[in-house]
Amino acid sequence: MAWYNYFTIEIPMMLMLFSFILQAPIMTNLFVYRTCYVILQYNKSDCAQLGKNINNITKVLEPKVQPTVNQINMANNVINTFLPMIFCLFLGTWSDKFGRRPFMIACFVGALMNQAVNVIIIHFKDLSPWWFTMGSIPSMLTGGFGALMIINNAHLIDVTTEKNRIVRLTVFGAVSSVSSAIANLVSSYIFYATSYQTIYLIGLTLNTLASVYVFFFIPESLKEEKKSFSIEEIMNSINVKDIIKYTIRKRKNNARFYLFWLICIHVLNGLAMGEMSVFTLYLRASKLQWTLTKITLVQSAVSFGGIFGNLFVTYVLHKFLHIKDMWLVILGIIMRLVGNLLRGFATNDYYIYAAYVANFFDSFPMLMLTMVLAKMVSPEEMGKILALISVISSLVNMLSNVLYPLVYNATIDSFIGLFNFVSFGFNVISGLAIIFLLRVNLPHFCAVDEQQDNEPSAKRMSLAEAAATNEWQACPSVQTYDLNMKKLSITTSVGENF
Q1: pTM for this model (two decimals)
Q2: What's a Gene Ontology MF term here (predicted)?
Protein backbone atom coordinates (compact mmCIF):
# COMPACT_ATOMS: atom_id res chain seq x y z
CA MET A 1 0.00 0.00 0.00
CA ALA A 2 1.32 3.45 -0.95
CA TRP A 3 2.31 5.66 1.98
CA TYR A 4 -0.29 8.30 1.15
CA ASN A 5 -3.14 5.81 1.54
CA TYR A 6 -2.56 5.97 5.30
CA PHE A 7 -3.32 9.70 5.32
CA THR A 8 -6.93 10.51 4.55
CA ILE A 9 -8.95 13.70 4.19
CA GLU A 10 -11.15 12.67 7.12
CA ILE A 11 -8.47 13.71 9.63
CA PRO A 12 -8.11 17.41 8.66
CA MET A 13 -11.86 17.63 8.09
CA MET A 14 -12.40 16.29 11.61
CA LEU A 15 -10.08 18.96 13.01
CA MET A 16 -11.82 21.73 11.08
CA LEU A 17 -15.32 20.54 11.98
CA PHE A 18 -14.32 20.22 15.63
CA SER A 19 -13.12 23.82 15.54
CA PHE A 20 -16.30 25.03 13.84
CA ILE A 21 -18.69 23.18 16.16
CA LEU A 22 -16.69 24.17 19.23
CA GLN A 23 -17.14 27.83 18.37
CA ALA A 24 -20.66 27.86 16.85
CA PRO A 25 -22.74 28.00 20.07
CA ILE A 26 -20.14 30.22 21.74
CA MET A 27 -20.25 32.65 18.83
CA THR A 28 -24.04 32.87 19.11
CA ASN A 29 -23.65 33.58 22.81
CA LEU A 30 -20.98 36.18 22.05
CA PHE A 31 -23.24 37.95 19.55
CA VAL A 32 -26.09 37.99 22.07
CA TYR A 33 -23.79 39.28 24.82
CA ARG A 34 -22.14 42.06 22.81
CA THR A 35 -25.40 43.10 21.15
CA CYS A 36 -26.90 43.45 24.61
CA TYR A 37 -24.28 45.74 26.17
CA VAL A 38 -22.49 47.32 23.16
CA ILE A 39 -25.36 48.00 20.74
CA LEU A 40 -28.43 48.14 22.98
CA GLN A 41 -26.55 49.60 25.97
CA TYR A 42 -28.03 47.34 28.64
CA ASN A 43 -26.17 46.68 31.88
CA LYS A 44 -23.09 44.55 31.18
CA SER A 45 -23.52 42.33 34.25
CA ASP A 46 -27.15 41.64 33.29
CA CYS A 47 -26.12 40.83 29.72
CA ALA A 48 -23.50 38.37 31.01
CA GLN A 49 -26.31 36.21 32.42
CA LEU A 50 -27.82 35.54 28.97
CA GLY A 51 -27.34 31.90 28.07
CA LYS A 52 -26.03 31.10 31.54
CA ASN A 53 -28.93 31.73 33.93
CA ILE A 54 -32.71 31.63 33.70
CA ASN A 55 -34.36 34.44 35.66
CA ASN A 56 -36.65 37.42 35.19
CA ILE A 57 -33.82 39.54 33.77
CA THR A 58 -32.88 37.07 31.04
CA LYS A 59 -36.54 36.41 30.17
CA VAL A 60 -36.95 40.12 29.43
CA LEU A 61 -33.62 40.70 27.67
CA GLU A 62 -33.51 37.63 25.41
CA PRO A 63 -36.47 38.60 23.12
CA LYS A 64 -35.20 42.19 22.92
CA VAL A 65 -31.68 41.20 21.89
CA GLN A 66 -32.42 38.36 19.47
CA PRO A 67 -33.85 40.38 16.53
CA THR A 68 -30.58 42.35 16.25
CA VAL A 69 -28.57 39.13 16.53
CA ASN A 70 -30.63 37.70 13.67
CA GLN A 71 -29.77 40.73 11.54
CA ILE A 72 -26.05 40.19 12.20
CA ASN A 73 -26.40 36.52 11.36
CA MET A 74 -28.23 37.37 8.13
CA ALA A 75 -25.43 39.72 7.08
CA ASN A 76 -22.81 37.08 7.89
CA ASN A 77 -24.70 34.46 5.91
CA VAL A 78 -24.99 36.69 2.85
CA ILE A 79 -21.28 37.56 2.99
CA ASN A 80 -20.34 33.89 3.45
CA THR A 81 -22.57 32.80 0.58
CA PHE A 82 -22.61 35.27 -2.31
CA LEU A 83 -18.97 35.38 -3.47
CA PRO A 84 -18.27 31.73 -2.49
CA MET A 85 -21.31 30.78 -4.58
CA ILE A 86 -19.68 32.33 -7.66
CA PHE A 87 -16.33 30.74 -6.78
CA CYS A 88 -17.95 27.31 -6.45
CA LEU A 89 -19.46 27.62 -9.92
CA PHE A 90 -15.98 27.37 -11.44
CA LEU A 91 -14.36 25.21 -8.80
CA GLY A 92 -15.48 21.94 -10.37
CA THR A 93 -13.99 22.86 -13.75
CA TRP A 94 -10.81 24.20 -12.18
CA SER A 95 -10.29 21.12 -10.02
CA ASP A 96 -11.02 18.77 -12.94
CA LYS A 97 -8.33 20.54 -14.97
CA PHE A 98 -5.71 21.58 -12.42
CA GLY A 99 -6.28 18.97 -9.70
CA ARG A 100 -8.05 18.89 -6.34
CA ARG A 101 -5.06 19.60 -4.11
CA PRO A 102 -4.36 23.31 -4.89
CA PHE A 103 -7.93 24.31 -4.16
CA MET A 104 -8.15 22.07 -1.12
CA ILE A 105 -5.11 23.83 0.34
CA ALA A 106 -6.62 27.24 -0.51
CA CYS A 107 -9.87 26.37 1.31
CA PHE A 108 -8.06 25.26 4.47
CA VAL A 109 -5.78 28.32 4.47
CA GLY A 110 -8.80 30.60 3.98
CA ALA A 111 -10.48 29.06 7.02
CA LEU A 112 -7.23 29.47 8.97
CA MET A 113 -7.06 33.18 8.12
CA ASN A 114 -10.71 33.53 9.13
CA GLN A 115 -9.82 32.20 12.57
CA ALA A 116 -6.83 34.53 12.88
CA VAL A 117 -8.95 37.62 12.12
CA ASN A 118 -11.60 36.56 14.66
CA VAL A 119 -8.94 36.11 17.36
CA ILE A 120 -7.81 39.71 16.78
CA ILE A 121 -11.37 41.11 16.82
CA ILE A 122 -12.37 39.27 19.98
CA HIS A 123 -9.43 40.80 21.85
CA PHE A 124 -11.16 44.21 21.76
CA LYS A 125 -14.07 43.71 24.16
CA ASP A 126 -16.04 46.85 23.30
CA LEU A 127 -16.17 46.27 19.55
CA SER A 128 -19.62 45.78 18.06
CA PRO A 129 -20.47 42.21 16.96
CA TRP A 130 -20.88 43.63 13.45
CA TRP A 131 -17.08 43.63 13.23
CA PHE A 132 -17.11 39.84 13.07
CA THR A 133 -18.37 40.09 9.51
CA MET A 134 -14.78 41.14 8.68
CA GLY A 135 -13.56 37.76 9.85
CA SER A 136 -15.50 36.10 7.05
CA ILE A 137 -13.57 37.82 4.26
CA PRO A 138 -10.54 35.44 3.95
CA SER A 139 -12.75 32.35 3.90
CA MET A 140 -15.16 34.09 1.53
CA LEU A 141 -12.36 34.74 -0.99
CA THR A 142 -11.43 31.03 -1.08
CA GLY A 143 -14.96 29.68 -1.42
CA GLY A 144 -15.83 29.01 2.20
CA PHE A 145 -17.19 25.77 3.58
CA GLY A 146 -19.19 25.04 0.41
CA ALA A 147 -16.05 24.97 -1.72
CA LEU A 148 -14.34 22.75 0.81
CA MET A 149 -17.20 20.26 0.67
CA ILE A 150 -17.12 20.21 -3.15
CA ILE A 151 -13.40 19.43 -3.12
CA ASN A 152 -13.81 16.90 -0.32
CA ASN A 153 -16.61 15.05 -2.15
CA ALA A 154 -14.69 15.12 -5.43
CA HIS A 155 -11.57 13.81 -3.66
CA LEU A 156 -13.50 10.95 -2.03
CA ILE A 157 -15.13 10.03 -5.33
CA ASP A 158 -11.69 10.04 -7.01
CA VAL A 159 -10.16 7.63 -4.49
CA THR A 160 -13.11 5.23 -4.14
CA THR A 161 -15.02 2.82 -6.32
CA GLU A 162 -18.78 2.44 -6.55
CA LYS A 163 -18.45 -0.68 -4.38
CA ASN A 164 -16.72 0.96 -1.41
CA ARG A 165 -17.88 4.57 -1.86
CA ILE A 166 -20.93 4.30 0.39
CA VAL A 167 -18.80 2.86 3.21
CA ARG A 168 -16.16 5.59 2.84
CA LEU A 169 -18.77 8.37 2.79
CA THR A 170 -20.47 6.83 5.81
CA VAL A 171 -17.14 6.71 7.64
CA PHE A 172 -16.67 10.37 6.78
CA GLY A 173 -20.15 11.10 8.15
CA ALA A 174 -19.32 9.16 11.32
CA VAL A 175 -16.04 11.04 11.77
CA SER A 176 -17.91 14.32 11.33
CA SER A 177 -20.50 13.26 13.88
CA VAL A 178 -17.86 12.19 16.43
CA SER A 179 -15.99 15.48 16.13
CA SER A 180 -19.28 17.41 16.38
CA ALA A 181 -20.38 15.42 19.41
CA ILE A 182 -17.13 15.91 21.32
CA ALA A 183 -16.96 19.60 20.40
CA ASN A 184 -20.52 20.21 21.59
CA LEU A 185 -19.87 18.24 24.76
CA VAL A 186 -16.89 20.30 25.87
CA SER A 187 -17.55 23.74 24.36
CA SER A 188 -19.63 25.32 27.12
CA TYR A 189 -17.44 23.83 29.88
CA ILE A 190 -14.25 25.16 28.28
CA PHE A 191 -15.92 28.54 27.77
CA TYR A 192 -17.13 28.95 31.35
CA ALA A 193 -13.78 27.69 32.70
CA THR A 194 -11.78 30.07 30.50
CA SER A 195 -13.00 32.81 28.13
CA TYR A 196 -14.13 33.66 24.61
CA GLN A 197 -10.50 34.27 23.66
CA THR A 198 -9.46 30.75 24.69
CA ILE A 199 -12.20 29.15 22.58
CA TYR A 200 -11.05 31.04 19.49
CA LEU A 201 -7.37 30.31 20.14
CA ILE A 202 -8.19 26.60 20.29
CA GLY A 203 -10.00 26.96 16.96
CA LEU A 204 -7.00 28.73 15.45
CA THR A 205 -4.68 25.94 16.62
CA LEU A 206 -6.90 23.19 15.19
CA ASN A 207 -7.19 24.95 11.83
CA THR A 208 -3.42 25.37 11.73
CA LEU A 209 -2.92 21.63 12.30
CA ALA A 210 -5.51 20.81 9.61
CA SER A 211 -3.84 23.10 7.06
CA VAL A 212 -0.38 21.68 7.77
CA TYR A 213 -1.73 18.12 7.46
CA VAL A 214 -3.33 18.82 4.08
CA PHE A 215 -0.23 20.56 2.76
CA PHE A 216 2.20 17.77 3.69
CA PHE A 217 0.17 14.55 3.70
CA ILE A 218 -2.78 14.71 1.27
CA PRO A 219 -1.64 13.89 -2.29
CA GLU A 220 -3.38 14.80 -5.51
CA SER A 221 -6.30 12.42 -6.14
CA LEU A 222 -6.57 12.97 -9.90
CA LYS A 223 -4.25 10.82 -11.98
CA GLU A 224 -3.87 13.45 -14.68
CA GLU A 225 -3.62 17.13 -13.83
CA LYS A 226 -1.47 20.09 -14.80
CA LYS A 227 1.61 20.15 -12.60
CA SER A 228 1.97 23.93 -12.84
CA PHE A 229 -0.35 26.74 -13.87
CA SER A 230 -0.74 30.48 -13.60
CA ILE A 231 -3.54 32.73 -12.39
CA GLU A 232 -4.08 33.72 -16.04
CA GLU A 233 -4.65 30.08 -17.00
CA ILE A 234 -7.15 29.66 -14.17
CA MET A 235 -9.10 32.75 -15.25
CA ASN A 236 -9.01 31.71 -18.91
CA SER A 237 -10.51 28.35 -17.97
CA ILE A 238 -13.68 29.99 -16.63
CA ASN A 239 -16.48 28.82 -18.88
CA VAL A 240 -19.95 29.02 -17.42
CA LYS A 241 -21.43 27.80 -20.68
CA ASP A 242 -19.32 24.64 -20.49
CA ILE A 243 -20.38 23.94 -16.90
CA ILE A 244 -24.06 24.35 -17.73
CA LYS A 245 -23.67 22.38 -20.97
CA TYR A 246 -22.34 19.34 -19.12
CA THR A 247 -25.30 19.46 -16.76
CA ILE A 248 -28.15 19.97 -19.24
CA ARG A 249 -26.85 18.03 -22.25
CA LYS A 250 -28.90 15.15 -23.59
CA ARG A 251 -28.32 11.87 -21.79
CA LYS A 252 -29.52 8.34 -22.34
CA ASN A 253 -32.07 6.47 -20.24
CA ASN A 254 -33.82 9.51 -18.69
CA ALA A 255 -30.56 10.62 -17.06
CA ARG A 256 -31.07 14.33 -17.79
CA PHE A 257 -34.63 14.21 -16.46
CA TYR A 258 -33.41 12.44 -13.32
CA LEU A 259 -30.59 14.94 -12.86
CA PHE A 260 -32.97 17.91 -13.06
CA TRP A 261 -35.15 16.40 -10.36
CA LEU A 262 -32.14 15.76 -8.11
CA ILE A 263 -31.20 19.43 -8.44
CA CYS A 264 -34.76 20.44 -7.51
CA ILE A 265 -34.58 18.22 -4.42
CA HIS A 266 -31.30 19.89 -3.41
CA VAL A 267 -33.02 23.27 -3.74
CA LEU A 268 -35.89 22.18 -1.50
CA ASN A 269 -33.45 20.72 1.02
CA GLY A 270 -31.59 24.04 1.14
CA LEU A 271 -34.83 25.89 1.79
CA ALA A 272 -35.80 23.51 4.59
CA MET A 273 -32.40 23.65 6.28
CA GLY A 274 -32.68 27.40 6.84
CA GLU A 275 -34.39 26.59 10.13
CA MET A 276 -30.98 25.90 11.66
CA SER A 277 -30.12 29.61 11.46
CA VAL A 278 -32.67 30.40 14.19
CA PHE A 279 -33.14 27.13 16.07
CA THR A 280 -30.59 27.82 18.83
CA LEU A 281 -32.18 31.21 19.49
CA TYR A 282 -35.59 29.51 19.54
CA LEU A 283 -34.45 27.15 22.31
CA ARG A 284 -33.23 30.11 24.37
CA ALA A 285 -36.21 32.47 23.96
CA SER A 286 -39.22 30.11 23.79
CA LYS A 287 -41.05 28.57 26.73
CA LEU A 288 -38.23 26.04 26.90
CA GLN A 289 -35.64 28.60 28.14
CA TRP A 290 -32.59 26.42 27.47
CA THR A 291 -29.16 27.54 28.67
CA LEU A 292 -25.97 27.36 26.60
CA THR A 293 -24.74 24.32 28.55
CA LYS A 294 -27.99 22.43 28.04
CA ILE A 295 -28.03 23.20 24.31
CA THR A 296 -24.48 21.94 23.78
CA LEU A 297 -24.98 18.79 25.88
CA VAL A 298 -28.14 17.81 24.01
CA GLN A 299 -26.54 18.53 20.65
CA SER A 300 -23.59 16.37 21.66
CA ALA A 301 -25.92 13.48 22.45
CA VAL A 302 -27.65 14.03 19.11
CA SER A 303 -24.33 13.86 17.26
CA PHE A 304 -23.51 10.52 18.90
CA GLY A 305 -27.01 9.31 18.07
CA GLY A 306 -26.48 10.37 14.47
CA ILE A 307 -23.44 8.09 14.27
CA PHE A 308 -25.50 5.04 15.21
CA GLY A 309 -28.32 6.19 12.95
CA ASN A 310 -26.00 6.41 9.94
CA LEU A 311 -24.36 3.07 10.74
CA PHE A 312 -27.78 1.44 11.11
CA VAL A 313 -28.95 2.79 7.77
CA THR A 314 -25.71 1.91 5.98
CA TYR A 315 -25.01 -1.58 7.27
CA VAL A 316 -28.45 -2.88 8.26
CA LEU A 317 -30.86 -1.23 5.84
CA HIS A 318 -28.59 -0.65 2.84
CA LYS A 319 -26.00 -3.45 2.86
CA PHE A 320 -27.80 -6.24 4.75
CA LEU A 321 -31.45 -5.68 3.80
CA HIS A 322 -30.50 -4.19 0.38
CA ILE A 323 -32.97 -1.34 0.59
CA LYS A 324 -32.40 0.94 -2.39
CA ASP A 325 -30.95 4.44 -2.16
CA MET A 326 -34.12 6.38 -2.95
CA TRP A 327 -36.19 4.49 -0.38
CA LEU A 328 -33.63 5.46 2.24
CA VAL A 329 -33.99 9.08 1.12
CA ILE A 330 -37.75 8.77 1.67
CA LEU A 331 -37.10 7.39 5.17
CA GLY A 332 -34.90 10.39 5.97
CA ILE A 333 -37.52 12.86 4.70
CA ILE A 334 -40.27 11.22 6.76
CA MET A 335 -38.16 11.50 9.90
CA ARG A 336 -37.49 15.16 9.10
CA LEU A 337 -41.23 15.81 8.86
CA VAL A 338 -41.78 14.18 12.23
CA GLY A 339 -39.04 16.36 13.71
CA ASN A 340 -40.56 19.53 12.22
CA LEU A 341 -43.94 18.82 13.79
CA LEU A 342 -42.51 17.95 17.19
CA ARG A 343 -40.44 21.14 17.31
CA GLY A 344 -43.32 23.26 16.06
CA PHE A 345 -45.74 22.03 18.73
CA ALA A 346 -43.14 21.80 21.53
CA THR A 347 -44.41 22.83 24.96
CA ASN A 348 -41.72 21.10 27.01
CA ASP A 349 -38.29 19.53 26.64
CA TYR A 350 -39.57 16.06 25.73
CA TYR A 351 -40.89 17.28 22.37
CA ILE A 352 -37.41 18.55 21.49
CA TYR A 353 -35.75 15.33 22.65
CA ALA A 354 -38.14 13.29 20.48
CA ALA A 355 -37.51 15.61 17.52
CA TYR A 356 -33.76 15.12 17.88
CA VAL A 357 -34.21 11.33 17.92
CA ALA A 358 -36.32 11.56 14.76
CA ASN A 359 -33.51 13.49 13.10
CA PHE A 360 -30.85 10.84 13.75
CA PHE A 361 -31.19 10.07 10.01
CA ASP A 362 -31.21 13.74 9.01
CA SER A 363 -27.94 13.75 7.06
CA PHE A 364 -28.65 10.56 5.14
CA PRO A 365 -30.98 11.87 2.38
CA MET A 366 -28.31 14.14 0.86
CA LEU A 367 -25.64 11.44 1.23
CA MET A 368 -27.82 8.99 -0.69
CA LEU A 369 -28.59 11.55 -3.39
CA THR A 370 -24.84 12.10 -3.86
CA MET A 371 -24.48 8.33 -4.28
CA VAL A 372 -27.25 8.30 -6.87
CA LEU A 373 -25.59 11.14 -8.77
CA ALA A 374 -22.23 9.33 -8.78
CA LYS A 375 -23.90 6.35 -10.48
CA MET A 376 -25.40 8.52 -13.21
CA VAL A 377 -22.51 10.61 -14.53
CA SER A 378 -18.90 10.06 -15.54
CA PRO A 379 -16.06 10.90 -13.13
CA GLU A 380 -14.94 13.64 -15.54
CA GLU A 381 -18.32 15.38 -15.23
CA MET A 382 -18.76 14.91 -11.51
CA GLY A 383 -16.79 17.99 -10.45
CA LYS A 384 -18.68 20.29 -12.82
CA ILE A 385 -22.11 19.00 -11.82
CA LEU A 386 -21.29 19.08 -8.10
CA ALA A 387 -20.11 22.66 -8.54
CA LEU A 388 -23.33 23.74 -10.24
CA ILE A 389 -25.45 21.99 -7.61
CA SER A 390 -23.39 23.62 -4.87
CA VAL A 391 -23.89 27.07 -6.41
CA ILE A 392 -27.65 26.57 -6.67
CA SER A 393 -27.75 25.22 -3.11
CA SER A 394 -25.68 28.16 -1.86
CA LEU A 395 -28.05 30.65 -3.47
CA VAL A 396 -31.02 28.87 -1.94
CA ASN A 397 -29.29 28.70 1.46
CA MET A 398 -28.62 32.43 1.30
CA LEU A 399 -32.31 33.08 0.63
CA SER A 400 -33.45 30.69 3.35
CA ASN A 401 -31.02 32.24 5.85
CA VAL A 402 -32.79 35.54 5.20
CA LEU A 403 -36.31 34.08 5.14
CA TYR A 404 -36.20 32.21 8.45
CA PRO A 405 -34.84 35.09 10.60
CA LEU A 406 -37.50 37.38 9.09
CA VAL A 407 -40.22 34.87 9.97
CA TYR A 408 -38.70 34.36 13.42
CA ASN A 409 -38.43 38.09 14.19
CA ALA A 410 -42.00 38.69 12.99
CA THR A 411 -43.46 35.95 15.21
CA ILE A 412 -41.16 36.10 18.26
CA ASP A 413 -43.94 37.57 20.44
CA SER A 414 -46.88 35.66 18.94
CA PHE A 415 -45.98 32.18 17.62
CA ILE A 416 -42.22 31.77 17.97
CA GLY A 417 -42.18 28.22 16.55
CA LEU A 418 -43.88 29.07 13.24
CA PHE A 419 -40.63 28.70 11.28
CA ASN A 420 -40.76 24.93 11.92
CA PHE A 421 -43.92 24.69 9.83
CA VAL A 422 -42.26 26.62 7.00
CA SER A 423 -39.57 23.93 6.99
CA PHE A 424 -42.27 21.25 7.17
CA GLY A 425 -43.82 22.60 3.96
CA PHE A 426 -40.55 22.49 2.04
CA ASN A 427 -39.87 18.93 3.24
CA VAL A 428 -43.34 17.81 2.13
CA ILE A 429 -42.69 19.10 -1.40
CA SER A 430 -39.25 17.43 -1.38
CA GLY A 431 -40.81 14.12 -0.32
CA LEU A 432 -43.38 14.32 -3.12
CA ALA A 433 -40.59 14.96 -5.64
CA ILE A 434 -38.70 11.88 -4.43
CA ILE A 435 -41.85 9.75 -4.59
CA PHE A 436 -42.25 10.88 -8.19
CA LEU A 437 -38.67 9.77 -8.96
CA LEU A 438 -39.40 6.32 -7.55
CA ARG A 439 -41.53 5.72 -10.64
CA VAL A 440 -38.52 6.27 -12.92
CA ASN A 441 -35.70 3.79 -13.48
CA LEU A 442 -32.38 5.04 -12.15
CA PRO A 443 -30.05 5.55 -15.15
CA HIS A 444 -26.45 4.36 -14.81
CA PHE A 445 -23.44 5.90 -16.49
CA CYS A 446 -22.11 3.77 -19.34
CA ALA A 447 -18.71 4.51 -20.85
CA VAL A 448 -19.70 2.80 -24.13
CA ASP A 449 -22.53 5.29 -24.59
CA GLU A 450 -20.31 8.21 -23.62
CA GLN A 451 -17.63 7.17 -26.13
CA GLN A 452 -20.14 6.65 -28.93
CA ASP A 453 -21.79 10.01 -28.37
CA ASN A 454 -18.45 11.68 -29.17
CA GLU A 455 -17.20 9.43 -32.01
CA PRO A 456 -17.99 9.40 -35.76
CA SER A 457 -20.47 6.70 -36.64
CA ALA A 458 -17.86 4.72 -38.57
CA LYS A 459 -15.80 4.27 -35.39
CA ARG A 460 -18.63 3.38 -33.04
CA MET A 461 -18.90 -0.04 -31.47
CA SER A 462 -22.26 -1.32 -30.32
CA LEU A 463 -22.76 -3.04 -27.00
CA ALA A 464 -23.51 -6.24 -28.88
CA GLU A 465 -20.24 -5.97 -30.83
CA ALA A 466 -18.32 -5.31 -27.65
CA ALA A 467 -19.90 -8.36 -26.04
CA ALA A 468 -19.23 -10.50 -29.12
CA THR A 469 -15.54 -9.69 -28.97
CA ASN A 470 -15.47 -10.59 -25.26
CA GLU A 471 -14.06 -7.16 -24.47
CA TRP A 472 -16.47 -6.55 -21.66
CA GLN A 473 -18.46 -8.79 -19.36
CA ALA A 474 -22.09 -8.76 -18.30
CA CYS A 475 -23.32 -5.71 -16.39
CA PRO A 476 -23.77 -4.46 -13.70
CA SER A 477 -20.31 -5.52 -12.55
CA VAL A 478 -17.67 -2.97 -13.46
CA GLN A 479 -15.33 -4.18 -16.22
CA THR A 480 -13.06 -2.66 -18.88
CA TYR A 481 -12.82 -2.97 -22.63
CA ASP A 482 -10.34 -1.66 -25.17
CA LEU A 483 -11.72 0.78 -27.74
CA ASN A 484 -9.27 2.71 -29.95
CA MET A 485 -6.45 1.71 -27.57
CA LYS A 486 -8.12 3.44 -24.58
CA LYS A 487 -9.14 1.61 -21.44
CA LEU A 488 -12.62 2.68 -20.46
CA SER A 489 -14.68 1.72 -17.44
CA ILE A 490 -18.04 0.10 -18.18
CA THR A 491 -21.24 -0.04 -16.20
CA THR A 492 -24.66 -1.05 -17.35
CA SER A 493 -26.79 1.41 -19.32
CA VAL A 494 -29.90 -0.40 -18.21
CA GLY A 495 -31.83 1.44 -15.52
CA GLU A 496 -31.97 0.10 -11.99
CA ASN A 497 -35.58 -0.23 -10.97
CA PHE A 498 -36.51 1.17 -7.60
Answers
A1: 0.76
A2: transmembrane transporter activity
